Amino acid sequence: MMKNLPMLVAVAFLAAACSTVPAPVRQDLMTAPSPISFDGNAAGQATDEVFVLVPDADPNKAGFAMRTGESLRLVLPVAFKRNTSVAVVPDMDTNLVLTKGWAQGSVRLAEQYRVGFDESKNAMVVTALKDISNEGTNAPGIKVIHLRGRTFNNPIPGDYPVTVTHASADGKALTVWQGGLKVLDGTPAARLAPTNFHLSPGTNADYQMAAVAQPTPHLLGVLLWGAQGAVLNGVGIAPRDLTRFPRYTGGLLVQDTNQDKRLDPATDKVVGGIIGAAPEGAVGQAATSPMGADGRPVLSGDVLRNDGFPAAAGGGKPNPGLLAIQFKAGDKPGVYRPTVELIGGNSVQFTIRAK
Known about the structure:
Layout: H1 5-19, E1 25-33, E2 49-52, E3 71-75, E4 81-82, E5 96-99, E6 113-118, E7 123-128, E8 144-147, E9 152-153, E10 158-167, E11 173-183, E12 191-194, E13 208-210, E14 220-225, E15 235-238, E16 251-255, E17 269-275, E18 286-288, E19 322-328, E20 334-336, E21 339-342, E22 347-349, E23 352-354
Parallel strand pairs: 1-11, 13-23
Antiparallel strand pairs: 1-2, 2-8, 3-7, 3-10, 4-9, 5-8, 6-7, 10-11, 12-14, 14-19, 15-16, 16-17, 17-21, 18-19, 20-23, 21-22
């Protein structure tokens, strides 16, 4: 018995060590169509989806950081086929990009992480080349994975499971997100998505601070699409008409169908509206179209993409379907949440804090 004692002690030690390895944290994974395309979740189209790891988009709330050698592994069902005509480029964000939780708010790839594809698992893999903090230029940290670049093709309509794993440099799972991707049979009748293409790269129009009774420092922005993914140009914001459209308490989205640069809900086409939400008793809050040098509203399709974006990607040129919105806070401090909606489509809510 004494001769076997060292072996028994060693076995007991190993068992105790194994029992102390913490189980990975389990979290729900939210998914949504990309904010830059119309059909990224439609059957037979290129996969263009976002995977939300930190659901709180408030930039004052921290995302997460990665240490050197850690990885994020996005595993797709085999029904999502790799488009082999598109190469996975390790040192460019053409296939996949990590973001801070808002449109065009990327976490810089260069010298921070690389992108790869694990064919055996049908998985996209992000590996940290150095510590990626959630402070400084990376603040508030990683919140979203955006899969793009025609890297995969969507399968037939249905609900598909998807998993993201954050692992340590030695391969131990730290956090596992599980959720689903819904692939639609066709494209929606209308769609909008928040955008910051009209602002300098990295700027976020959501969660702005404004002085009471003053406009926000930055214009809000949305991209608009109609049937079959056609961009909606010529749209601006007209005053509300509660008799015809009682839902839209903050104004109407009107398409200038007669192209006279005057937005008249009686003769032009109402394509949506704005639903207001403000501190109790607040008055004076308003959402309007910005005015051009000619004194007329700047409509969607006439708004310039910021020249900080590459010229080859449309920087400095009119951005099709981009509607800019000037929001003015009311006379009370607090949180204002205008919701922009397309009739027959979806909606997006912005958060503005006034003080």
